[in-house]
Amino acid sequence: MSPASAGARIVSPYQNGKGGSHFRWWEDGECRTSFEWPRKRLGSTPDELVDAMTRVGFDLEADGEDPGVAGKAALAEDLIGVRVTGYVGSPGEGGESPRSVMRGSSGRGSAS
Fold first, then answer.
1. pTM (2 d.p.)
2. Listed residue (9, 19, 34, 32) closest to 90, CA to CA
3. 80, 92 Cβ separation under 8 angstroms
4. Beta strands in 40-95 (DSSP E)
5. How far out from the chain centre does Cα 77 lie?
6. How far apart are CA 55 and CA 81, in angstroms?
């Protein structure tokens, strides 16, 4: 990702086929923040996203739950300022936006 992020910002919420999720934020050629578990962040600025993580609903307390890919997608939305629509959280669950999932709403994603 280093060459692709030169002069740009890349955010990547990702869920693998086994249900594990990851988040990576690359900017200007460096991995700024990367994590699987929100309280165990790596990168050149691992704590820079704490305010944004809290704003979108991450529970960063010691006993807080992992928000999964929905939380990581909501964080990506917050960082890039573009709303993700048609989000698919898991098989059979389509159309909810990441922020709706984080807020426990049943609202459907839509362009705004």
1. 0.73
2. 19
3. no
4. 88-90, 93-94
5. 7
6. 14
